[in-house]
Amino acid sequence: MKCEDVSERLSAFLDGELPVSVAADIRCHLDGCERCAAQYARESIAWTLVVEQPWVSPRADLWPRIEAGLREPAAHTVWGGLRWHPFPVATAALAAAGLLLGVQLGTYVASPDGLAATTAGSSSRERIDVQYLADVFPGSLADSVLNTPVGIPRQEASR
Amino acid sequence: MSDRSAAVDDPDAQLMTRAARGDLPAFRTLVDKYQGPLVNFLYHVLLDHGEAEDAAQDVFLKVYRAAGRYRPDAKFATWFYRIATNTALNVLKTRKRRPTVSLDAVLAQRGPDAWPPSPYMGPDREAERAQMVQAVGRALRTLPERQRMAVVLHRFEGLSYHEISEVLSTSVDAVDALLRRAKADLRVALTPWA
Known about the structure:
The complex is a heterodimer.
Chain A: H1 3-14, H2 20-32, H3 34-50, H4 62-71, H5 78-84, H6 88-110, H7 112-136, H8 141-146, H9 154-157
Helix pairs in contact in A: 1-3, 2-3, 6-7
Chain B: H1 3-8, H2 11-20, H3 24-46, H4 49-65, H5 76-94, H6 103-110, H7 123-142, H8 145-155, H9 161-167, H10 172-189
């Protein structure tokens, strides 16, 4: 084998990832080539020293934190929410229907007929409150408001 | 041995299958077994002890919540480290600051006990070896992330090239290239002692 071919395969050879026959050829080359043997030696030492790096241990409270996390509902990303939701299409359709309904309702309220309906509703509620005030404070402004004909501004009615 | 038969004989795959059925003690057994290697893996990838701890918790929660999707037709470790790798990559993507705890700082705090025991070679050789280990450690930290992941998965977790290719969602040839370049970079770190 040529040195270039061996150099390309030295890493896999060091990791035992080569077929037996190829590994045998490389070993034979290393026995007779000082340059490749030196490269192999340096890589072996560096590779050995990797596992001598400090080992970091987990804290003792890792399991309690995991257990606490299992009790909490999962925090989903948008994608996660779609993935986990059983009926994404139905949900989207429901949201669209709700939006359409809201637009329709808003359009109706903003229309003259809709506005009159809401105004009438609020006027009757306002009238009831004024009645209560008039009952409690006879002769008060509330009393005069109650007796003011509809359509006439209150200020003008009180003159 | 095929992947399917390996998984059938894989006790961790059996534990995960039980965990998927709600067996919390089985899941606890997996946590006890993998928490050390996982935190170590994440530490050497993220280079920050606090982030490694947080990411480890995140990984185990993801593993449990994904239990329903686990298929025991491959080794559990491969599936597990794929989740861990993706979690680490997400942390690296969202990171906005440099690591607050450097390996050197950890070593300074832990003193002589930081290094695993090695055959005693005399004070001069011991000091030289310690310097070489530190040099390799510094070089390891400067490796590109995917190279560093491949190195840690192979050297610390003992995964094969094929298993690493599944974890990193790449080809065996790509794993070979990653480790080849990593070895070349680490070899350069030992140039002062050549």
